[in-house]
């Protein structure tokens, strides 16, 4: 694929948005490439966790303004639906996704990071939804995910002022989990991915599903999701192994993912 690179290291899949000459801006081709890579990742049983990052000095600087400049209302809606669907696919991937935000994450880039499950940031990272300064709204989920992550008041402030924030403030408001020196970012992301890989993957995926579904519904319905997931995992060989290791006081576990 032209603008999205993929590699696998053990059980970790690494997706890199690779359009550095345009600061990895999202155009229709990038969205198509990302869509195809996500299908590949979902279908590969040996990939447990995904790390998503950008090539060069940018994570994703935003959607491609050069492509959008000539959009009609109809074009804009179609582009928003297209990008929104790809980001929903990313969000609902059965495997956990870690965003390693190495630089600019603005507009569509911030939205892309927010569609991931965990966000780590380089000290050089910048976040923001600057769309109103361009005469448009966020189009790939920014008005929906940002208030869910940082709260309505802070999301309103950031979106309505188009203000760009640094990594430290992003951590302060809960937009990212951790901030580290640029040279340590991928190492930290891989360490986190390996920590997730070490656990029972059915339980990992069911836990992610419960969190994602629960965030979209009321607590009573969400509790039912969780009870169902708990029942599913109690019927697995991995539950027997994990609890057996605990009772036998042994550190090593041999999960079979079934």
From TrEMBL:
The keyword Membrane does not apply. InterPro entries: ClpP/crotonase-like_dom_sf (IPR029045), Enoyl-CoA_hyd/isom_CS (IPR018376), Enoyl-CoA_hydra/iso (IPR001753), Enoyl-CoA_hydra_C (IPR014748). CDD domains: crotonase-like. Keywords: Lyase. Belongs to the enoyl-CoA hydratase/isomerase family. This is Enoyl-CoA hydratase/isomerase family protein. It comes from Pseudoflavonifractor gallinarum.
């Amino acid at each position: 694929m032209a603008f999205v690179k993929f590699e696998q290291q053990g059980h970790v899949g690494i997706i890199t948005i690779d359009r550095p000459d345009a600061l990895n801006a999202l155009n229709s081709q990038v969205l198509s490439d990302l869509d195809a890579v996500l299908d590949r990742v979902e279908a590969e049983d040996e990939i447990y966790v995904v790390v998503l990052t950008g090539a060069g000095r940018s994570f994703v600087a935003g959607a491609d303004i050069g492509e959008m400049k000539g959009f009609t209302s109809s074009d804009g809606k179609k582009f928003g639906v297209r990008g929104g669907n790809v980001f929903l696919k990313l969000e609902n991937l059965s495997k956990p996704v870690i965003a390693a935000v190495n630089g600019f994450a603005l507009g569509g880039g911030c939205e892309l990071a927010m569609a991931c499950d965990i966000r780590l940031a380089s000290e050089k990272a910048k976040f923001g939804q600057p769309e109103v300064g361009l005469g448009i709204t966020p189009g790939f989920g920014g008005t929906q995910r940002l208030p869910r992550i940082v709260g309505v008041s802070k999301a309103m402030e950031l979106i309505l002022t188009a203000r760009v924030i640094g990594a430290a403030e992003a951590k302060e408001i809960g937009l990212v989990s951790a901030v580290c020196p640029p040279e340590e970012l991928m190492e930290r992301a891989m360490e986190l991915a390996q920590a997730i890989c070490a656990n029972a993957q059915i339980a990992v995926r069911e836990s992610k599903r419960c969190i994602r579904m629960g965030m979209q519904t009321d607590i009573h319905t969400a509790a039912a999701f969780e009870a169902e997931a708990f029942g599913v995992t109690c019927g697995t060989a991995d539950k027997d192994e994990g609890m057996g290791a605990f009772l036998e006081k042994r550190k090593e576990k041999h999960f079979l993912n079934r």
